[in-house]
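Box 3.1. Reading complex inputs
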Amino acid sequence: MKNVSALFWYIRRLYFISPMLFITLIISSLLIAVLPTLEMILLKELIMEIQHKESFYSTLALMAALALILILTMCIKSISMSKFWALEGLRGDVVTKASLLRLDAFETPQLYDLMQRVSDGIGFRTKSITEALLNSITSVAAIISTSLLLASASPWIPVVILMFSIPYMILKYRHSQETYDVEKEITKNQRFLDYLLKLMSERESIKEIKVLQGGSFIIKKWITTFQENKEKKNQVLIRQSKRAFSYQLLTLISISISFAILIYLTVNDHIGLATLIVMLETVFLCQANWEGSTQHFSQLYGHLFYAADLRAFLSYPDEEKQGISFDDSRIHIRFENVSFKYPQSEQYALRNVSFEILPGEKAALIGVNGAGKSTLVKLLLGIFEPTEGTIYINGIDLKDLDKRTWRNAVGVVFQDFVRYQFHVADNVGFGDIEQYRDSDRAMEKIVQASEKSFLDQIVKNLPYSYQTRLGKYFDGGVELSGGQWQKVAIARAYFRRFRFLIFDEPTSAIDPKSEVRLFQNFMELTREKSALFIVHRLSTTRFANRILVLDDGRLVEQGTFQELLNRNGEFARIYYAQAELYGKEGEVG
Amino acid sequence: MTLKSLKSLKSLYFVMKAIFVEKPLLGFGTVAVFVLSSAMISLQLQSIKKVVDALFHGMGMNLLIWLTVLILSYLTLILANTVKPLLEFHIREWLNFKYPLEFIQKSLRTPMVSFDSPEFYDKLNRAREDSQTKMADLLRLTLLMFSAIFNVFAVVATLIQIHPWLIVMIAASSFPGFYLTIQTGKKTHAVNRYQTPEWRLHYYLNRLISTKENAREVRVLGIQDYLYQMWSKLGNTIRNQTRDIEIQHAKRTIFTDMLAKGANLVCLAILGSMFIAGSITIGSIALIFRAIRYFQENMFQFMESASQLYTHSLFIEDIFVFLGTEEEKETGRDSTSHGASHNRTGHGHRLKRIETIEFQNVSFYYPGAATPALDQVNFVWRFGEKIALVGENGAGKSTFVHLLLGLYKPTTGQVRVNGIPLEELNLQEYYERITATFQDFNKYSFSFRENITLGRKANDQLISEIAEQMNMSDLLRERGLNAQLGSEFGGGELSGGQWQKLAICRSLYRQPDMIIMDEPTASLDPIAEVEIFKNIADLSDSMGVLLISHRLGSAKQADRIIFLEKGRIVEEGSHDTLMEIPMGKYRDLYNIQAEWYKEGIQN
């Protein structure tokens, strides 16, 4: 039932994309269905005229006219179909929706899966549903018109054909029910096969596989999965063949009975010769339409779950746009007893965290892997809301703030920042899209940001300077190393007119010399602004006004560099472990 | 037809040949079934005529005989139709097996340097997609086409008995349509190919907007609207191109169909006059109606499948182009084809243990680059020696590693292993002795155990020992060796640092003579890093270690430090030696890092 309502929802949606085209499509589908029957009727007239050895050219002309109409209808249908798709209404809806979705949606597995399913199917599936829908309409109309024609000879014929079609429909329905689960399994295996093929053909992965000699293992895995899948498909197919065989037997019987009726009628002079010939053809036609309609309906049924997915996805709530706007000239952040659990997780990722970042302060966040550093950043950006406690920005609860205004004020470099496969200027300009598009001095600002992040030294060696495409995804792109990409990401953050800056391990792949200078620039650029940076190399935290030490979701220590060293706690432990690497003999020479 | 189209038919020929040579029973069996079912159609038509004639010329034995024939032929047809999909399935699965497998093996044999070229990469990706879907389509279309041809022959054989001109008439009307359909097919392919970069950009933009990896940053930066506009503008361009072709096709269909219908009418006229003249029977008319329908259905099917087949064979060509890419002679021994029949072996130099790896005046230029990525490098690495490779981003460290592993071939100079030039060695044997953990290591969606063994014989004892060394015992206990990893296929996810440790475990499990670590600890926390380096230090007695790291505190522990700058080795020696070079680059860099920690301790 859910699927049926999804179908109606889907039809309404199609209608609204373009009412004109949609109605044209429906009408032409109906016309196409009825015309072959009309053709049969005319044929009968024609044969009768031949039989009476009269001139039959007027009927011939009529048939020519009919043929022309038929062809025109088909053309109208295919043209309006392509125009209809050119509107791309649904695809646009899906991508728009994706861009409006609340960010935590991407962190919720079910919704994320739903979105992947929806956007994977958007071209092919929507087209299939619509085609199946129109074809179903056509075949139903064709069944009705051919049955009416047959009934004019004998009402028993359509009844016989109907009776033998019902078992087929039941068989077909049961078949799609039974194979649904197997098909799902097959699809999953297929995806895994694709994944393995991808591993074997991507630049980054093939390198390791070659050196570690994993090739034969992956090939073996591919073969096993393939065979397993083949076996499953084989089972489905054999079942299907058995059913197809019994169906064709049924068809044979129903056609034979229909023929017997027709022959009986002819022999007893109830119908003429012309009618006999035409009716023989119509029996085939009617039979084929029954088969077709079952086919189309089962296709439609099979695709409906997609319509249901689409509907569920499009009705997911958008990110709230309203909220209190605020003065962002000074940023004051306060966490008050903030605790957080990920959706569907039992464990707290953060527990009772309280701290403050005053305007103009630089805070460093440290802790081992999995201590909750990235979670804290996600909360601060409003991607998730705290399970308990409150985050205040300039004294206002972050929940009530206008998220866009808040994010506009923040510059971020994520640990897994995006490597945009566009040219350098785009890569930097994306940091502040308004400034990039609207300001005359955008390019100047980009160059400035690049100087501060030492990106300019890389750009110097690129063939088209700031217009060089980065990354290997497109032809002519130049791939950068990990450290070089990091500089791009930092330049992007610097280009933004931020009030508050978040750096999540921005220099892990950058050589030490650049790193020091980068941090000096960082301090200079954020002089009057607040900032939060996450680092693994504790030497960098000397710059911070305040160091926050996270351990297992709790804030265990906080204070300045000296305070924490004197305290001899967790921070000091990690610090000395690292310092040991530069050992006793590490004197400056 | 042009030379190009002939070439694409050649690839179709390759596929067919493969079927008949390697699976003759299946291939010929399928042909037999298709011929049989066409023959049955012809028989069916004949018997319809006889039955109708018998009906009007008194009943009797004739009617009974032909009715039996009619029913029998129909039954045979049903059987044949049941067997057809089964046969088709087995051939299709066989093709789907054969070509992706050849694709993988080819990909393994292709020299690494090819992967840096976008054209090659494009070709590879196209071939990958095509090897799966297009092959199956190709088969389906070929079968459709041939069954249509057989059926047309069967109908022609029947019709020709009545009047030869009928055939000429119907056939003549079909050919223009056939030609037009092929033309459209050609155009579609041209557009597809022409659009590849645009399609990719379109797809890429969609991914930027709607995948997890990108969503967070894109939203925080607020560029989703901008990207969306780009996406929809590009989409319009692409669709307009496709739509134009479709509309053109629709227009052509009008013309084609009118020809067909016209021919139909002419046939009717001929029939009518023949009947009036009394030269054909009423049974023939019944037969002709059925026959014309069959003829046109099959002719249409033939045209459709032939034209699609033509389009597809253009795509298939991509696979053969890829499979036929020369595995350059010089890199021929680069063949890492596991279990493939074309496995080439080295020159018989058996590699027992790596004692030394040596660079002799090695320079390397990336294809098309004007400046060398490595410039006149001389270097020796002995068994048991621990070396650190340091230098700024882009100094050539990764290139150095690629050359060391034989993934790239030096432009000039030579890499020697135990004194033997690397190209004379079998790389398979070489990789038994040397492994690497790359900066962009793989995260396999396999089980925990498989992630470590990756095809080596599983030794759970060894796995737990190595896990112990890497401080992964807790994780291992918690998840278990059989746990599926990677969320893509429903397994558990690991953090970046955990994946990284796992990648190092994978290398260590191979118990190599030499191990290369390209920034193995970038996403590990400081404590983990310190511990791992200590463990690597313990291991280094039994193996050579080459470490790339930015953290000079770790590099310092090496026996020898190599400082690369702009593709040249500018400093080389132990930590102490390098620290004594006045104004030395290493010393400079080390001091910058050490100073930060020193200050903290002093105060």
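In summary: The first helix of chain B runs from residue 3 to 22.
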